[in-house]
Amino acid sequence: MNRKLTFTATLAALSVFTASCADNPTEPENIAIVIVSPQNAQLSALGESTQLTAQARDRKNNVVSGAIFSWASSDTNIVSINQVGLTTARGNGPAVITAAAGTVSGRASIEVNQQAAGITLTPRQTTLFALGDTLRFIADARDANGNPITDARVNWFSPDDNVATIDETGLATARGNGTVTVRVTAGSASAQADLTVTQRIVSVALVPEQATIPVAGDTLRLTAYARDANNYPVTNAAFTWNSSDPAVATVDQSGLVTAQDAGTTTITADANGVYGSSQITVPEQDWIAFWRTGDYADECGGYCENIYMLVAGSNRVLQITAHPGQDFMPSWFSDGKHLAFGTTRDGDNAIYVINADGSSEHRIQNGLSYSIWPAVSPDGLEIAFVYTDYAASATGIAIMNSNGANVRKLTSRPCSQVCKIEGKPTWSPDGAHLTFDSPTGGNRDVYVINKDGTALSNLTRNPNFQDWSAAWSPDGTRIAFVSDRSGTQEIYVMNADGTNPQQLTDLASNEGGAMDPTWSPDGKKIIFASNHTGNLELFTINSYGPLNLQNVTNTPHSQERYPDWRR
Q: What is the pLDDT of residue 26?
């Protein structure tokens, strides 16, 4: 009896213990994972928010209710989060949001990438006054909450690159006159601004800046060039032309100058109050400079060789130089008051400049020991010449300023102490090109080259004959030259591009040769040297029509070459 009670009591006690455990809450099951939803999210505006939720699960993937989470952001400068899981965009970039329950956590990736909801462009309207001028447009892109997008990807557009171009940074560059509407886009947002290019004239230059019209009644076409602040030409400029002395020369409204009487006048072209000018001289006489051998003299070591001048159509001859050395190859400056010439008077081959009256002769120092055959540019500012650089063992054509500075070698061929050199450079009337002859291909040919040394071209391309001593016509359309293609040295004329060569002289029956052709200022005549009479003298022919061969010097006891007609 006592055992039963005891057993019963034990069972009762056990029952009481079991009931007591059932009355208390159960222990939470172990959290195995935390899931954050959504696991990936994108925000497109600063200040934009998204709600995240977290869920805890046990190892059997059952939801563990009542779990308490601690929220954190890997970069609060990009995304902030509060303790109920609300995220807010603060800056562009990626961030990881963590929800932790105890030692177990889950993650979500948030990407903040501002998208442009609107864009403004500054300035909205502007004008550039010179080609090459630039303006940087500023694009202000903002997101849906009005926050600026500092690294916004924008695209720039100009509808007409002939008026203005714009690069990827918004830098617009003026290219031509007109108006364009510049547009910028960022995503679906866009803005536009008007850009006008209107060249403002700041300088006017006349070409040539100075010139001589040899004979009253002759004309010269001046060209006016207006330029903006960046030195780009203003092609639509309108000019008003005037002459300071119409008694010397008049000018019409197209820039055509007509010589009236001897003297000097200044021609001006006015474009909106900006002036350019050209000095025009009408000389008393029509002079031709040339080389002549005089009498035998001990001081010359033989026959003296000097520069002379004669008046076209007359017997008037003046001696310009008088020196024991050899003076040859004269070339007029455009003012008609100075001449350049080659000489050996210093023991080498050099270039001198002298006044037309024989005064103030001086050497042009260019740093080269061998310089011959000067050719003064149409504007008188530069001299082309044949050089030999013994130090460099080279020869070719070069250009220098009229004072000898700024020597630029246009061509160069190997040359030791003895070699065949280039010959007779001549300028095109616009001063942009040069002709010369060269033995580069074996035989001599006539070449043309830009004054900057580019675009070298063989005009004659005749491997079987010699072509040399070229001279440009005053209007720039034709080139006279010497060729032996007929069997003797004759004067030919071809187009400026080398086409349509035509023989002018026919001196073969007289067993003489023509050389050194030069045009008259009006382009109607060509003067040249020839020995077809048995003595080397100067002759003229018509450049068109019947030749009308005329002996200009007619000096049987002297010899003449290298004529240059004052322009």
A: 33
